Amino acid sequence: MMPGMDGYEAAKKIRLLAKNEPLVIIILSSAPGLADPRRLKKLGIDRTLIKPLRRATLFEAIRHGLKPPAPSERVPTRPHEMAQARGLRLLLVEDNRVNQKLALRLLEKLGHQVTLAINGQEAIELLQSSAFDLVLMDIQMPVMGGVEATQKIRDAELKTGVHIPIIAMTAHAMMGDAEKYLSAGMDGCVSKPVRVGFLSAEIDRLAKPANAKTLVFS
Amino acid sequence: MSKAIMDLTELLERVENDRELIRDLLLIFKEEFPRHLQALRDAVDSMDGEKVAAEAHTMKGMLSTLSATSAASAAARLEQLGRNRKVCEFQEAYAAFENISKKLLLQLDTCMAEVGG
């Protein structure tokens, strides 16, 4: 947000003025949940970075924007590297800013493209407008929690036959809870605070990038 | 340094030594904490079990991410009391949480310096 003209309006005007230029626009935001991907796409914004900003993240975003990274010729061996080679489209559903930052950073380090939703309702809306390979779902959130959102997603999938993997991220590291999440339609579970190794292994186990589709509600 | 409320070694290990990430997490926590503490205080004062549980849950999430185990446990206790509507114990549990949180806040700048912030 800026006085006079905000970043989105500025991006729109820049796109109009430089119609034929191969320009990369990156938005810096401290309120990631407010960024609607459909709006970003329409305005020609390539990427949103969340403040506070890391030098390395900014550098990587600029480097990525200017030149697509060359595919590695080396065969990945470690699970982290395998995930990195896959570069999945992930939907992270998390309301807590500290946990958002941690998960975003770890997932980006693994080479994934991450979109953030701040509650279950927002996640459902994003799933209807964009394709994702996998969802990482917090359980307790305002507006709509993870269990309710998962049930709605699974109900909608009955019409399409699509099944997007959903991993519960939960602080309730109890077996009874894990069973509850699985019976609500979740496919896996990682306990919080998340550790990169467990997170990566669970994503690798469940993600099937070729199946990415948008959610259809009718 | 006084007795560590935040286990920086464990946190560093968990984020694979990403010091810049820790600094970011601490900055966000510092920014978010007063608002959430006030909300928790209000929920406790109004004896609203559901709100106490929700706010304490948020606190617990942030604190366990920062490896502040004892503060996270104090928040977890409040969350449980909130869920069970044990309103008579709210004030005492809140006071314990506030006490440990204040110690954590005092430690934050030292941690920030240690990770090079």
Give the tally of structural domains of chain B: 1
The averaged pLDDT of chain B comes out at 93
Share of helix of chain B, binned: over 70%
Uncertain stretches of 5 or more adjacent residues of chain A: 68-84
Q: What is the general shape of chain B?
A: elongated
Shape field of chain A: globular
Order of helices and strands of chain B: HHHHH
Task: Predict the CATH topology of chain B.
Answer: Four Helix Bundle (Hemerythrin (Met), subunit A)
Radius of gyration of chain A: 18 Å
Q: What proportion strand of chain A?
A: 5-15%
Quickly count the helices of chain A: 9
Describe this protein's structure.
The complex is a heterodimer of chains A (218) and B (117). Chain A has two domains: 7-66, no CATH class; 79-211, Rossmann fold (3-Layer(aba) Sandwich). Chain A is built from nine helices and seven strands. Chain A has helices at 7-17, 37-43, 55-66, 79-86, 97-109, 120-129, 146-157, 175-183, 196-206, and strands at residues 26-29, 47-50, 89-93, 113-117, 134-138, 166-170, 188-191. In chain A, strands 4-3-5-6-7 form a five-stranded parallel β-sheet, with helices on both faces. Chain A has a two-stranded parallel ribbon with strand order 1-2. In chain A, helix 4 packs across helix 9 and helix 6 (120-129) runs parallel beside helix 7 (146-157). Chain A is globular and about 55 Å long. Chain A starts with 6 loop residues before the first helix and ends in a 12-residue tail after the last helix. Mean pLDDT of chain A is 79; it is low at 68-84. Chain B has one domain: Up-down Bundle (Four Helix Bundle (Hemerythrin (Met), subunit A)), CATH 1.20.120. In chain B, 78% of the residues lie in helices and 0% in strands. The longest helix of chain B has 27 residues, at 19-45. The radius of gyration of chain B is 14 Å and the shape is elongated. The model of chain B has no long low-confidence stretch (mean pLDDT 93). Classes of the chains: A alpha/beta (218), B mainly alpha (117). The interface between A and B is medium-sized, with 21 and 22 residues.
